Amino acid sequence: MTQRDIDLALEVVRESLPHLGIPRRLCTRRLSPAGRVLGQYRWHSDTLRLNPRYLARLSDDDALDLLDTLLHELLHKASPLWKQLRDSFRPHPDIWLKAERLAGQLGPVYLARRRKPTAEA
Fold it and tell me: Model's pTM, two decimal places?
């Protein structure tokens, strides 16, 4: 599925949670595929960085993890700047829990869209 999974996840979030906003830039090259960081929102450049491992073929569980990561980072984007800065340096379970809850709500729609054949197929 590769980039299509990311695009579909962003589409579902854009439609369901427009107040979160989608960053101007998406980067899948700056994080190490072997690293622990799965996503990162860079407020100064309005860039969402995703681990390149999300460009591989994803199982449904991996796709849901991608959705959770996207939501987590978009929740940071929607936070006040002071909170974005503070959360860069400390755990932020409020964001983790909210992203998990939202991923649970949006997950079935996202998985259904992933299963639809593409126009190119």
Answer: 0.93
